[in-house]
Each structure stands twice: as structure tokens, then as C-alpha cells.
Design goal:
six-stranded mixed β-sheet, globular, four-stranded mixed β-sheet, 7 helices, alpha/beta, 14 strands
């Protein structure tokens, strides 16, 4: 029996799983298993509440606008308070694309205003202009890591996400569009709450980031033991090459 177990709650995995974002969960599972760390994942769907103390990491993937709108109101009605409690207790929240947009206050989609859970102070607007599509790389600085690192992935979003003055972006855009296509920044980082537009899926292309999430979610003081990451490093290098950095 594993001495430690990473407990993950996946929100709406049947509806918010565009671009194979479920691959992020699979990568977390593999990297835990290879180290003898237990892994448990629980799905929380429409109408289902969540226990903020029962999970170490909450994950929200991306979705098409229709499914995102469906999940948004349900998240506000059945999960918002628990997510705030979890975040206040230092649990990790990772949200990708549509999930990232729902971390904020609202998403303005034409005449419709889709509510968010307000974990971070931001809003998203579907503004005139083309979708922001392409390979992307950002420079990030995360607690516990020495120096900057590069996250590489793929973005495809029509919304432009605007951070309030007090919010910290996840990273600086090296290549690609980021939050608005003009700000020079991508994602959001507030304590252990992370939002990003990077698909890829994100974690298989950035195994080091998956390890940081695992260690942070488990509250480990020491780094995880290294793995033989030749394939993961090759995937990361290829993603950076495609992104042009």
C-alpha cells in the first residue's frame, strides 16, 4: 500500500475535456505510480457537490461554449463555496482554457454573461477579432523552483481574459498570444490556484510542471525523486521547437 496518495477531483470530465485535456490526469497518475505514490481520482458532475477537504488537487478542463455555459451555472450553484474553501486551505486548483475562464468573475459572450466562481479577480470577453490559435510558450517562475522555466503548449480561444491589477499572471509570453493577444502575459497564478490557456495536453508536454503540481498538492518539503524522463524531455523540446523558442 502506498504511503502517500494524491487525491484528485476532476470537475465535469465528461463535458470539459476538449483537446484531450484528460491526458493531464493520465500523466499525473503515471508519474505518481512510477514513484509508488497512490493516485485517486473522483469525478464531480452536474448537480454534484464536492468536499473541499477530501482532495489535494482540483482539475477543470476546457469545453465548447455550450458545454462551458452549462457547467458554469452548475459550478456556481453547487461547487463555488467548496472551491473557495479548498483554495483558502492551500489545495491546488488547475484549470485549463474554458476552466480557466470560469475561475474568474464572468465571461461575456455576446449578449450572454456566463458566471464564474470568482476564485481570482479576472473576466473574459469574446471581443471582435480572430481566435487566438497556435503553439505557445511562456516563461514561468514558481515557488520552490530555482529560476525560470518554460511551459509549452497549444492555445485556441476566442475569449480575451483580463486580469485585475492585483492578480499575477502565470507567465510571460515568449511565443504565441496569451491572455489577450496584446498583454504579453498568459494565465493566472494566485497561491496554488492556476489558470492557463495551454492545451497540448499541458502536462505530457511539461512533465516537470506535473511533478511540481504533485509535490505542491502533497505538501512535500523535498523534491520528488527523479524519473527517467527521456521521452518527456523530448516531447518538451519538440513543443518548444514548434513554438519557436
Amino acid at each position: 500500500m502506498a504511503e502517500r496518495t494524491l487525491r484528485v477531483c476532476a470537475l465535469y470530465p465528461d463535458l470539459m475535456n476538449i483537446y484531450a485535456d484528460r491526458g493531464n490526469l493520465l500523466l499525473l497518475e503515471r508519474r505518481c505510480t512510477w514513484r509508488g505514490i497512490g493516485f485517486e481520482v473522483v469525478a464531480a458532475g452536474l448537480g454534484e457537490g464536492i468536499d473541499p477537504a477530501a482532495h489535494d488537487l482540483f482539475y477543470i478542463g476546457g469545453a465548447q461554449d455550450r458545454d462551458q455555459a452549462l457547467c458554469a451555472q452548475d459550478m456556481v450553484d453547487t461547487k463555488r463555496d467548496a472551491l473557495h474553501t479548498a483554495a483558502d486551505a492551500g489545495r491546488v486548483v488547475l484549470a485549463v482554457c474554458g476552466g480557466y475562464q470560469l475561475l474568474g468573475n464572468h465571461y461575456e459572450l455576446g449578449d450572454e454573461r456566463i458566471p464564474g466562481v470568482g476564485l481570482v479577480d479576472l473576466y473574459t470577453v469574446r471581443e471582435p477579432g480572430p481566435r487566438l490559435i497556435g503553439n505557445v510558450a511562456i516563461e514561468v517562475r514558481l515557488p520552490g523552483l530555482d529560476g525560470p522555466r518554460v511551459l509549452a503548449g497549444f492555445e485556441n480561444h476566442g475569449g480575451r481574459t483580463h486580469l485585475a491589477a492585483g492578480e499575477q499572471p502565470l507567465g510571460r509570453v515568449l511565443k504565441g498570444h496569451g491572455n489577450t493577444g496584446a498583454s504579453g502575459f498568459e494565465g493566472v497564478l494566485r497561491a496554488h490556484v492556476i489558470g492557463t490557456y495551454l492545451h497540448g495536453p499541458l502536462l505530457p508536454k511539461n512533465a516537470w510542471f506535473a511533478d511540481w503540481l504533485i509535490a505542491t498538492a502533497l505538501g512535500l518539503d523535498e523534491p520528488l525523486e527523479p524519473l527517467e524522463d527521456g521521452l518527456e524531455r523530448a516531447a518538451h523540446a519538440d513543443a518548444r521547437r514548434v513554438a519557436g523558442v
